[in-house]
């Protein structure tokens, strides 16, 4: 009997963030994998060479740390950084660390990089069992020492990880930089320990249209590489070691889901117009220019949100003006899209470029990020603005500034924009005539002063991902409080209504570009709120369009008016879900919603 036959089927539940069903082999991802090749030594004679490489990397790593220590000593700044470096040097000299790595090379017949990785993993296993929080946290020193040794073994260039076909990535979490290291075309799906519906893993999975479940708490401990696994991104479950009957059932579910998706594409090319002739513009949210064909295929009228910070991630050097321009020329004026909304970079928080030191702030999401970072690093900001303006000649362009919290910020951003524009005009650079300036409404203070902000801009776009987080005082990627992340919270709905009403009184358009916009169960509520544009992940567009075309503005307003009389989220959610099941039974009953 094969080992696989002895393994019991078990189910793990999390948060489904990208729909669909996949069946494949698990691959346990660790950030160290991004720089650790693995190969068996075919000839025992190669062992000596690998041991030599390891000892050389140890010497180089220690030399680098000693040089760094000397530089820091010359700069002053206290003894603590020097003590930390001493700890890392001590780890590299530690007899047990060295002997365990040498043992891995000799006994396992593996390359030096993988032997170091195995040693670090062994230490992590030991430290995880420690009860003292401080001692448990010291594993980071061993990991740092290991990473430096690995960097000297591998060299600076980090190639993409080679994966076999049919892989499901299992990880604690995945950043955009992590996914850039993976050969995504081989990946079937994601499952992670942490995260929520608006975490990076979720956004990335939806953008590349692969099923994902996040917030599973301990899937990295329960699953091993090569385990067979089913990911149901619609239901938010992972099934490990499925028995033949379960596997067959999910193969059928997968077939039905894919057929339903094909059927929905019939709605992609149709306008989002209600039965009583109210039209809503539909935008696509993208991170990468490669997603534009998907946005067009799924029926986007334009690009409602281009997250430009992804241009910076996973690069050896900062992008220059020409790099930016090449990206924006691929977005603006594209055949099949009426407009493009380019959001200036939202760096800081948890997104960094290579030369940028990660923030040590206690609350980075509330720290130096987005427009605050742009106004501090003005030259970087100007490089981006120049490129955006140069691309504007190709078609209708909207520039959107993120995380505006006060009137001073939008005025400062506009002053820099005007300076850059005048410089380009003085050079004789041709610019577009259809450029609109807008802001994201994602900070509660922006809602409160929306009347004043409306006088400064051409449009608002409500970023519900952050707005909900800040209004309800929850960390949206913390699985412990994910249940509190509630778009239908009465406070959230009232704030959205307030923004829409103020925007319309001021004569400007109001869009929504947060994940809430792409949730079909909320579509009639959003119609009732009077939003002019909904921008979402392209995969969500056909289903949202189908609901808009089957509804009326009048009944949507009636639904909203009833909802606004409720005082609790529980009442609102129960009422909305019941109403949508009754109104669109083929959509919400068939999809288990």
Features:
alpha/beta, 593 residues, TIM Barrel, 13% strand, single chain, 8-stranded mixed β-sheet, Enzyme I, Chain A, domain 2, 8-stranded parallel beta barrel, 25 helices, 47% helix, 16 strands, Glucose Oxidase, domain 1, 3 domains
Number of helices: 25
Give me the CATH fold name of the largest domain.
TIM Barrel
Q: What is the number of E strands? A: 16
**How is the main sheet built?**
8 strands, mixed
Please state the structural category. alpha/beta
Report Rg: 26 Å
Query: How widely separated are the two ends?
Result: 41 Å
CATH architecture assignment of the largest domain: Alpha-Beta Barrel
Unreliable segments of 5+ consecutive residues = 1-5
- Rough shape? globular
The CATH superfamily of the largest domain is Phosphoenolpyruvate-binding domains
Q: What helical percentage do the residues reach?
A: 40-55%
Explain what you see:
With 593 residues, the protein is of the alpha/beta class. The chain has 3 domains: 3-29 and 174-262, Glucose Oxidase, domain 1; 35-154, Enzyme I, Chain A, domain 2 (Orthogonal Bundle), CATH 1.10.274.10; 268-588, Phosphoenolpyruvate-binding domains (TIM Barrel). It has 25 helices and 16 strands. The strands form 2 sheets. It has an 8-stranded mixed β-sheet. Helix 5 runs antiparallel to helix 7 (139-154). The longest helix has 30 residues, at 46-75.
């Amino acid at each position: 009997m094969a080992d696989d036959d002895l393994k019991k089927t078990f189910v793990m539940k999390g948060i489904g963030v990208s729909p669909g069903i996949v069946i494949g082999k698990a691959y346990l991802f660790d950030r160290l994998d991004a720089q650790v090749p693995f190969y068996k030594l075919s000839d025992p004679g190669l062992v000596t060479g690998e041991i030599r490489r390891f000892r050389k990397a140890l010497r180089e790593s220690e030399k680098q740390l000693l040089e760094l220590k000397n530089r820091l000593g010359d700069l002053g700044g206290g003894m603590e950084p020097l003590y930390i470096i001493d700890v890392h040097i001590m780890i590299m000299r530690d007899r047990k660390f060295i002997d365990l790595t040498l043992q891995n090379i000799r006994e396992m017949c593996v390359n030096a990089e993988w032997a170091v990785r195995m040693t670090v993993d062994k230490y992590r296993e030991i430290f995880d069992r420690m009860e003292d929080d401080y001692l448990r946290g010291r594993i980071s020193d061993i990991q740092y020492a290991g990473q430096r040794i690995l960097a000297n073994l591998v060299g600076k260039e980090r190639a993409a990880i080679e994966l076999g076909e049919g892989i499901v990535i299992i990880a604690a979490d995945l950043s955009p930089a992590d996914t850039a290291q993976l050969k995504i075309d081989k990946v079937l799906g994601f499952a992670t320990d942490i995260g929520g519906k608006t975490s990076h893993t979720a956004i990335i999975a939806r953008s590349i249209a692969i099923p994902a479940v996040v917030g599973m708490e301990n899937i990295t401990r329960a699953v091993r590489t090569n385990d067979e696994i089913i990911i149901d991104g619609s239901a938010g479950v992972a099934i490990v070691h499925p028995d033949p009957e379960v596997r067959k059932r999910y193969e059928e579910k997968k077939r039905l889901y894919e057929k339903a998706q094909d059927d929905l594409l019939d709605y992609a090319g149709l306008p989002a117009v209600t039965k009583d002739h109210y039209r809503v513009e539909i935008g696509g949210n993208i991170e990468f220019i490669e997603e534009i064909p998907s946005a067009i295929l799924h029926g986007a009228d334009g690009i409602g949100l281009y997250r430009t910070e992804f241009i910076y991630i996973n690069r050896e050097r900062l992008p220059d003006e020409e790099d930016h321009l090449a990206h924006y020329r691929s977005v603006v004026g594209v055949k099949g899209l009426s407009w493009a909304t380019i959001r200036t970079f939202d760096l800081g928080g948890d997104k960094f470029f290579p030369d940028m030191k990660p923030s040590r702030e206690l609350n980075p999401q509330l720290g130096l990020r987005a427009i605050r970072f742009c106004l501090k690093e003005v030259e970087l900001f100007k490089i981006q603005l120049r490129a955006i303006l140069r691309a504007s000649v190709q078609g209708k362009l909207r520039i959107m500034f993120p995380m505006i919290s006060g009137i001073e910020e939008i005025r400062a951003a506009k002053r820099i924009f005007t300076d850059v524009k005048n410089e380009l005009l003085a050079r004789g650079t041709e610019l577009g005539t259809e450029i609109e300036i807008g802001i994201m409404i994602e900070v509660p203070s922006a809602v409160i002063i929306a009347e004043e902000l409306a006088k400064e801009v051409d449009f608002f776009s409500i970023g519900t991902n952050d707005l909900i987080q800040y209004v309800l005082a929850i960390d949206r990627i913390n699985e412990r409080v994910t249940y509190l992340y509630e778009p239908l919270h009465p406070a959230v709905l009232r704030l959205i209504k307030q923004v829409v009403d103020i925007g319309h009184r001021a004569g400007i358009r109001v869009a929504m570009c947060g994940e809430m916009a792409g949730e079909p169960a909320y579509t009639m509520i959003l119609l009732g709120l009077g939003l002019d544009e909904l921008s979402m992940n392209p995969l969500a567009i056909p289903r949202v369009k189908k609901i808009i075309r089957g509804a009326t503005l009048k009944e949507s307003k009636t639904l909203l008016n009833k909802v606004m009389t409720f005082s609790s989220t529980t009442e609102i959610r129960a009422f909305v879900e019941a109403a949508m099941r009754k109104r669109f039974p083929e959509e919400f009953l068939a999809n288990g919603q």
